[in-house]
Amino acid sequence: MRTVKWNQNNYTLEMIDQRLLPVEFKVNEYSDYRDVAQAISDMVVRGAPAIGGAAAFGLAVAAYQSDAQTVDELREDLNQAVRVLEKARPTAVNLSWALKRIMRRTADVADSPDALREAVLEEAQKIADEDVQINKNMARHGAELIDDGDTIIHHCNTGALATVDWGTALGVIRTAHEQGKDIHVLVDETRPRLQGARLTAWELDRYNISYDIISDNMAGHFLSTGQVQKVVFGADRVAANGDVANKIGTYMLALAAKDNDVPAYSVVPTSTIDLSLASGDQIPIEERAVDEVLGLTLMGQKVAPEQASARNIAFDITPNRLISGIVTENGVVYPPFDVNLPPVVPED
Amino acid sequence: MRTVKWNQNNYTLEMIDQRLLPVEFKVNEYSDYRDVAQAISDMVVRGAPAIGGAAAFGLAVAAYQSDAQTVDELREDLNQAVRVLEKARPTAVNLSWALKRIMRRTADVADSPDALREAVLEEAQKIADEDVQINKNMARHGAELIDDGDTIIHHCNTGALATVDWGTALGVIRTAHEQGKDIHVLVDETRPRLQGARLTAWELDRYNISYDIISDNMAGHFLSTGQVQKVVFGADRVAANGDVANKIGTYMLALAAKDNDVPAYSVVPTSTIDLSLASGDQIPIEERAVDEVLGLTLMGQKVAPEQASARNIAFDITPNRLISGIVTENGVVYPPFDVNLPPVVPED
User: Fold this and answer.
1) What is the pLDDT of residue A146?
2) Which of A40, A239, B153, B287 could lock A277 by a disulfide, CB 3.0 to 4.6 Å apart?
């Protein structure tokens, strides 16, 4: 089952509701692009590549939802859908990348509204199918960096659930495991939304890969006591200089890795690299509702005082000096990133 | 109300049950030193100075609990109580410090068992009373480091609840606030036991000090974006070279502070400084039950998969190179700590 998937029977987008995992496995069906945008905002689907796929199919939903009678009318409806979808979340560049790619590649379709609808869907499907292949290629390149016996710290969820299928950083771990390498994963629980404890642990259980969940702030202890050989994570956007915007906590993790000479790799499809931004400080950082921080119960007991005040920053910037390599579908890119990015990209 | 308090009416130790805060304020009564040891293990009381006070009164409980008819018999019972109490938690040195001090200072009492009982209680009471005064002195020294307008990141709970009264690092914040300085506190929620979100936020509410709870992994973002002027925390044990054992996450926090040239201060009574250990790697690090990591519910939903595996490291070592100063009741100690520790201590 793919994380995001087109249902051709009724022209809907199907997505695993990741908010319910690991307790419940449920697939939602979307027939309105505005609901797709809301689902992205609410984190029914999350992970930069999966958000890209969801947005792509969201535009296909918009195409078939529209009762436009002319190509121009339909294109107007699609533009409106792009405006709504691209605002769903600000940090992951894959969202706008997917929408722009579809609009660009269907710009010449003028035969009929239905031809345009089909072209939009075809491009969305292509993005989704490519994502799986790209992940496999990334995983193959990244797995070469993993040694037999490695203990690896992994942040957030970057597995099949964060992509259309297979995964980025977790895909590297999966492929290394399938190659027969003996691997142990320390799973950052990843406050506040706990994607590590909820989703990565769930995936690792399914893949039969050995792991322990840790709270994010324990990573430093395991690194400084020599128990960790690699640190891996994905990215929501990479700037032209190699600064990495990723799930909050990545910066402190990468810093602790650097402080102990443990290599830290960001694993990303090239669609996550945003060459229009010179450095990380230009990447928009999302701040989310505080109930994700305050709504905790620990061993049956409510945690924070009523009406406590909080902040909820969803991403941080890891400066390029802390990144040992950026693993892409075209190979591993090493510093200096401002020179070596982007990696050679196949013909567009 | 003190966190730990002797009840002379029935020779019992009263302690606020900190596991129930902020939902419920309840005081437990202890008439068996083994229950005191269990309460320390279970974190009814926590925080290095408060643990010292609880252990001291725990020994007084043992003295009055014993039906020994001779001084020698009573001393044997006390030695047995020391053995049980000192094992309650391994990392905070204040525990064994308090027990050793009482046994040393009552070593000459030979008149009668009741005289020894009274001497033990008197010394325990002295430790508790001194702790409050020591905290006030630390707070006064530390408050000089705080500027009007500072935003301060605080880790774990180091307030009145972590001591007999007033607090160490949070005591500094309280005193600076009482001096009229405009202060905002970013409260590390402090996974896994969430002492920040539960206890520090509860205390700051009571003191009317402005704060926001953040997840521990957000500290790096606030530091790297220039929103923080000071970082403060306590310690459970400080080695002779200034390495600091403190609540898990302190190392990554201090590292992020250093990476952004923000000063990080450890605020500790001199009883927390263990000159018998040359460096931090000799400090025993407690590992606790995994339900503290796995037993989370977020917004009503269980987080980790059933039977997920986890690790729960309770403390980490922050190397002295990341510590800007150690605030004690005798003043602020600056690097090089191996030369400048201990600060001048009043006659023992």
Assistant:
1) 98
2) A239
Examine the domain organization and report whether A80 and A201 are in the same domain: no
CB atoms A197 and B294 under 8 Å: yes
Q: B78 with B52, same domain?
A: yes
Residues B125 and B150 both lie in one domain: no
ipTM: 0.96
CB of B287 less than 8 A from some CB of A:
no
- Return the CATH number at B255: 3.40.50.10470
Which pTM does this prediction carry?
Answer: 0.96
The C-alpha of A72 sits at a distance from chain B's nearest C-alpha, in angstroms, of: 45
A222, A270: one domain: yes
CA distance B156 to B143: 19
A338 and A213 within one domain: yes
**Total residues found in chain A within this entry:** 348
* DSSP-derived 3-state class of residue B345: coil
- A286 shares its domain with A156: yes
Our count of domains for chain B comes to 2
Is A217–B292 a contact, with Cβ atoms under 8 angstroms apart? no
| C-alpha distances out from residue B14 to A13, B44, B45, B103, B229, Å | 60, 11, 11, 22, 38
Q: Which residue has the tokens 């496995």?
A: A25
pLDDT for A324 beyond 90: yes
Compute the average pLDDT of residues B254-282: 97
Chosen domain end from A135, A156, A171: A135
Cβ contact, residue pair A293, B249, below 8 Å: no
Mean pLDDT value across chain B: 96
Residues B63, B102: Cα–Cα separation, whole Å: 12
Of the pLDDT bands very low, low, confident and very high (cuts 50, 70, 90), residue B299 is confident
Containing domain of residue B250, as a range?
A: 141-344
Does the beta-carbon distance from A303 to B191 stay under 8 Å?
no
Domain end residue (candidates: B75, B110, B135): B135
Statement to judge: residues A129 and A146 lie in one domain: no
Q: Give percent of chain B above pLDDT 70.
A: 99
B313 vs B289: CA distance, rounded Å: 9
A294 touches chain B (CB under 8 A): yes
In order of A17, A26, A89, A343, the CA distances from A302 in angstroms are 25, 27, 29, 48
The closest alpha carbon to B57, from B131, B159, B110, belongs to B131
Using the beta-carbon criterion (under 8 Å), do B285 and A221 form an inter-chain contact? yes
Cβ distance B216 to A215 less than 8 Å, yes or no, reads yes
Q: How far A169 CA lies from chain B's nearest CA (Å)?
A: 19
The pLDDT tens digits of the residues spanning A13-44 come to 999 999 999 999 999 999 999 999 999 999 99
Average pLDDT on A298-321 reads 94
pLDDT digits (tens, 9 = 90+) for A70-105: 999 999 999 999 999 999 999 999 999 999 999 999
* Position B1 pLDDT exceeds 90: no
- B274 a catalytic residue: no
Number of A–B residue contacts, CB under 8 Å: 209
Contact of B72 with chain A, judged by CB distance below 8 Å, is answered with no
Q: Do A86 and A145 lie in a common domain? A: no
Shortest Cα distance from A319 to chain B (angstroms)?
Answer: 10
Q: What is the pLDDT of residues B163-208, one digit of tens each?
A: 999 999 999 999 999 999 999 999 999 999 999 999 999 999 999 9
| CATH code assigned at A84 | 1.20.120.420
**Which residue among B165, B188, B216, B236 is the active-site one?**
B236
Disruptive mutation site among B194, B252, B290 for chain A (greatest number of A CBs within 10 Å): B252
